[in-house]
Specification:
seven-stranded antiparallel β-sheet, three-stranded mixed β-sheet, alpha+beta
């Protein structure tokens, strides 16, 4: 990301990240397709007429993943997200770094994708003016981080590329970068807490919908996964409130302490196991939102990074 005084000026994604995302989708798609095909064959052996479900004739159409890459590229273009490629001499540079065990390669010379990503960033950095603020977001602490932020060897790379390292900032999550844009304002903390308490039932409904998408993303390869409910004793705690730059609105960081009841129905091809039951998941989930001072409402809720959503207990 290239920062301006008012926030994000340009958003760039290394092409290798796009490729990796598409390949990950392909893997999950193949797993889901294989599970679905196996289920269809099992039903057909049981003499269930699958034409009633219109699955048999649609399987060939489902076995296509190209539309996803096309859709993703169109979405990035529509939102003016730019792709950045590695330099033309990337292969030789990657070989040099791997044999010298230079970051982001590890002590065993592993880290090809990280190397391609970093060279793409250096090419982007080299095209910017000396004092252009640049933000790099990566949660890969092994490849890019040291105890004090960016690995010193990578800091040297930034300087060599022609940018002042002081203008290059590293964050491990997008939410941590967004929090850096706000100015703390404890005076409004109580007002937001009162609003959250008043609107809690509706906020839980909204968060349940968001979490359902996250749960389906984890268990979707098995079949259907839905949240039955968020426990009635769930709490939404206001952690931090700050004024957004150049607006009258406030960014709100919250924690959702909740118990999720999740129903999973489907086939797990890895375990060769048919899943059909309700699972209980206890989690403290990070949430961010924007307090619209004009509407007196907490909008734009987003779910932060969750390490996992695996159950503590299978209830049924």
């Amino acid at each position: 990301m290239r920062r301006s005084r008012d926030g994000i000026d340009q958003l760039h994604v290394p092409t290798v990240v796009l490729i990796e995302t598409v390949r990950g989708y392909d893997r999950h798609h193949r797993q889901a397709f294989a599970a679905l095909s196996k289920s269809v064959r099992q039903f057909e052996r049981l003499r269930v007429d699958m034409e009633d479900f219109q699955l048999s004739e649609d399987l060939d159409e489902l076995d296509e993943t190209d539309p996803y890459e096309n859709w993703l590229r169109e979405e990035l273009a529509e939102h003016e997200v730019h792709l950045c490629d590695p330099p033309d001499n990337a292969l030789q540079e990657l070989i040099n770094r791997a044999t010298l065990r230079s970051p982001p390669f590890d002590a065993n010379g592993n880290g090809f994708r990280d190397g391609v990503l970093w060279l793409s960033i250096l090419r982007f950095v080299g095209d910017q003016l000396l004092h252009t603020p640049i933000v790099f977001v990566s949660g890969d602490h092994r490849a890019f981080w040291s105890d004090n932020g960016l690995d010193p060897a990578l800091v040297a790379d930034i300087a060599t590329a022609g940018t002042n390292p002081a203008q290059f900032r590293l964050f491990d999550t997008v939410s941590s970068f967004v929090r850096s844009l706000i100015t703390e304002d404890p005076a409004v903390h109580n007002d937001v807490a009162d609003l959250v308490e008043t609107e809690l039932p509706q906020l839980l409904v909204n968060l349940e919908a968001l979490l359902s998408g996250r749960v389906l993303g984890i268990y979707g390869a098995f079949g259907e996964a839905t949240i039955l409910n968020i426990g009635g004793d769930s709490q939404l705690v206001v952690e931090e409130v700050g004024a957004l730059e150049n607006t009258n609105d406030f960014l709100v960081s919250l924690t959702l302490d909740c118990t999720l009841l999740v129903e999973v129905v489907g086939y797990d091809p890895d375990a060769d196991l048919y899943l059909d039951g309700e699972w209980r998941i206890d989690r403290a989930i990070p949430v961010t939102g924007v307090w619209d001072t004009n509407q007196q409402a907490l909008d734009n809720l987003t779910i932060g990074q969750i390490d996992d959503l695996y159950p503590q207990e299978v209830l049924v």
